[in-house]
Specification:
Layout (H helix, E strand, L loop, with lengths): L1 H21 L14 H6 L6 E2 L6 E2 L4 H40 L8 H34 L5 H29 L6 E2 L2 E2 L1 E2 L2 E2 L9 H42 L9 H8 L7 H16 L7 H23 L13 H24 L2 H10 L9 H4 L1 E3 L17 E3 L10 H31 L5 H29 L1
Antiparallel strand pairs: 1-2, 3-4, 5-6, 7-8
């Protein structure tokens, strides 16, 4: 998947270059951008200042007033991060308390499954609610920061939204993948939070629960977004028609001209920002955590096929024709994609090394080379209760109670634990260096601009220079 993501980015760069050349927007200069209308309105109370490049007087908002707004906006965003982490901790506490309560009832065997599914659904609801409110907050703060150009505005809004959505969608998954069950202590010395033991992974590890969490979030987000995209314009249309009928009565029925009906029945195009954000979040799910859920790329593909049709309906039926805007690429989204690809390599290396049992099983086979298969592997991963620790467990003879971990009778980590830790870390280093080396080689061998397009650009530059020389030569001949 890491190699696929690398090839995807290279193909995207080449496609972007072709489209930019085709639409004559390759190499658009950022200095040519005009101030945003909202910026001009907000700066109308301040004196005009000359543009340092064009020397044309234009509205100017003082940096002394804009910088405090910038830091204030990021302070609010930090508070939102803290609030989101509080919700995540609340979900963890919910899981801990519910599994304790259910273990005292007849649902003891089903307690882990019920707790995991219910907490996943609760986490999905929190994600959707926080995403909705934060979207409005991020837009309001970015408007308040008074960015001069559309590029600056889009950059800051994108950065705010992606950072929050990254924490919003991935924090619970990262907790299960890398932290759950790793700092719980051992029998008679458990680390507790508010008097409750921390939750542990199931007997088979956290991979099953991680895949379940990914499935709930990925499917839930996709279904919710598609339903909202389909129903939102229709609900808004019904509300608008109801308001107009109350205000104008029978006048609404007299709109026989098609353009009037289209104007009232369609809404303005909201831009591609939400589409970009949705695709980037989806791209993270299918690359960063693909080792835990190989089905994620297929689910994303099926969702995108459906969403293409829904977007087509929106553009043809539900929206007014969008106003074309020049751009030579996807801007900061390209940098975010490259960041996600690098993060995917590191995350999958840690998933394979620390979350799955692949490395421990391989090491067990190597160390016990006389054993065919994994006979005795489960017992080898178990530790006996520490000396002096007495647990009264029904149907378990005294002295035969074990728990998962590489510890001795004193509760200290064994030598095997540290050997396995070194091997895991070595695997992470070797894996990510190997993948990054291959990805760098691919990036070096595959140029961002196809050779045919490169030659075409050079040919156009040559013809333009020749035309300029001919014009200068004609001017000189006319003077003579």
């Amino acid at each position: 998947m890491s190699f696929w993501a690398t090839f995807f980015l290279e193909y995207w760069k080449r496609t972007t270059a072709k489209l930019a050349h085709h639409w004559n927007v390759m190499g658009i200069e950022e200095e040519a951008e005009r101030p945003r209308p909202q910026y001009c309105v907000g700066a109308s109370n301040h004196p005009l200042q000359p543009n340092p490049i064009t020397q044309i007087y234009e509205p100017h908002f003082p940096e002394s007033k804009r910088v405090p707004r910038y830091f204030t906006g990021w302070s609010f965003i930090t508070l939102m991060f803290v609030l989101l982490l509080i919700f995540i901790i609340g979900v963890v506490l919910y899981r801990t308390i519910v599994i304790v309560l259910l273990s005292k009832t007849k649902l003891t065997s089903e307690a882990p499954v019920v707790t995991s599914l219910s907490s996943s659904v609760i986490n999905l609801v929190i994600i959707l609610i926080m995403s909705f409110f934060y979207g409005m907050l991020a837009k309001a703060l970015t408007d308040w920061e008074m960015h001069r150009t559309d590029s600056d505005y889009e950059f800051n809004l994108t950065l705010k939204m992606y950072l929050f959505e990254f924490v919003n969608y991935y924090s619970a998954v990262i907790y299960i993948a890398f932290f759950k069950g790793r700092f719980i202590g051992y029998p008679c010395n458990y680390y507790k939070i508010f008097g409750y033991r921390q939750e542990e992974c199931a007997a088979g590890g956290c991979f099953y629960e991680l895949a379940q969490q990914l499935l709930v979030i990925l499917l839930g987000k996709q279904i919710f977004n598609n339903v909202v995209e389909f129903l939102k314009p229709r609900i808004k249309l019904c509300i608008e028609n109801w308001r107009r009928k109350r205000k104008y009565g029978a006048l609404v029925e007299d709109e026989s001209e098609q353009w009037k009906m289209d104007y009232h029945n369609c809404e303005d195009y909201g831009g591609l920002f939400s589409e970009y954000l949705e695709m980037i979040i989806q791209f993270g799910f299918i690359t960063v955590f693909v080792a835990a859920m190989p089905l994620a790329p297929l689910l994303a593909l099926l969702n995108n096929i459906v969403e293409i049709r829904l977007d087509a309906i929106q553009f043809v039926v539900d929206m007014r024709r969008p106003v074309a805007m020049k751009a030579d690429g996807i801007g900061i989204w390209q940098n975010i994609l490259e960041f996600v690809v690098k993060l995917a390599v590191i995350a999958n290396a840690f998933l394979i090394a620390f979350t799955s049992d692949i490395i421990p099983q391989i090491f067990y086979r190597y160390r016990h080379h006389g054993t065919s298969g994994l006979e005795g592997y489960v017992n080898y991963t178990l530790a006996h209760l520490p000396s002096g620790c007495n647990y009264s467990i029904a149907h378990v003879p005294s002295g035969q109670c074990s728990y998962r971990g590489y510890r001795d009778v004193h509760g200290d980590h064994t030598e095997y634990y540290y050997e396995l830790l070194v091997i895991r870390l070595a695997f992470v280093v070797v894996f990510e260096h190997f993948v990054f080396a291959i990805a760098g080689l691919i990036d070096l061998m595959v140029p961002d601009i196809p050779r045919s397009l490169y030659l075409k650009i050079k040919r156009e530059e040559y013809l333009s220079q020749q035309a300029l020389v001919e014009v200068e030569h004609e001017d000189e001949m006319m003077k003579d």
